Structures are given as C-alpha cells and as structure tokens.
Amino acid sequence: MSRTLPPGCRRWLDAIALYVDGDLEADLCRALEAHLQDCPDCRVLVDTMRQTVYLYRAAAREPVALPPDLHRRLFARLPGLGEEGSAAGRADAAPSEAAP
User: How far apart are CA 50 and CA 43, in angstroms?
Assistant: First the structure.
C-alpha cells in the first residue's frame, strides 16, 4: 500500500470506517465492495482497520496489571501536582489564588 491513498480512494475513507463497523448503508456497501475488488490499497486499509478493532477489543477484555508505584511516579513527574495525597494533587482541591 502506498503511503497516501490515491485521490479517488480518499472519498471512501468515511465509508470504510462505517463498513468495518457494520454500519454502512446497503447501497454504499455494494459500491464499496465493488471498489475493493479493484483496489489493493483500500483492501489493505480495510484489513488493517479490522485487525486494529479486533486487537483493541481483545485487549479491553484482559485487564492490564499496572505497577504498584505507578501513581506515585506519575504524580511526581507532573508539574504542579506534587505528591498524590497533597491538596495540590487532588482533583477536589480548591484552586490556588496564585494559579493563573
């Protein structure tokens, strides 16, 4: 597949997304499928989108174990938030008067 789709294929991008989701109207679906028979670039795009959706859904079913000290390290790196338990780091804390 080329780095960019040919101009004639760009018009199919929105339709391809709907097609992969199963939400494309029947007439457009038939037209897109006819286009896909003659367009290897768009076929690769459809296959890639399908695989991406599959992998995303598969990953969402399996919880990811995060390191136990992740929150501490994250808040230590975020400027202005300080430690996780400090007032500056809590979402419910009142804004400081010095804040812009």
Answer: 11
Q: 63: burial class by Cβ within 10 Å (0-12, 13-18, 19+)? A: exposed
Q: Give the three-class secondary structure for 25.
A: coil
One-letter amino acid at 49 equals M
AA letter at 92: D
> What residue spans define the domains of the chain?
7-61
Task: In whole angstroms, give the CA distance from residue 37 to residue 11.
Answer: 16
CA distance 17 to 9: 13
Of the pLDDT bands very low, low, confident and very high (cuts 50, 70, 90), residue 62 is confident
pTM: 0.57
The set of long-range contacts for 51-56, using a CB threshold of 8 Å and a minimum separation of 24, is 53/20, 53/21
Q: Is 80 left (phi over 0), alpha (psi -120 to 50) or beta?
A: left
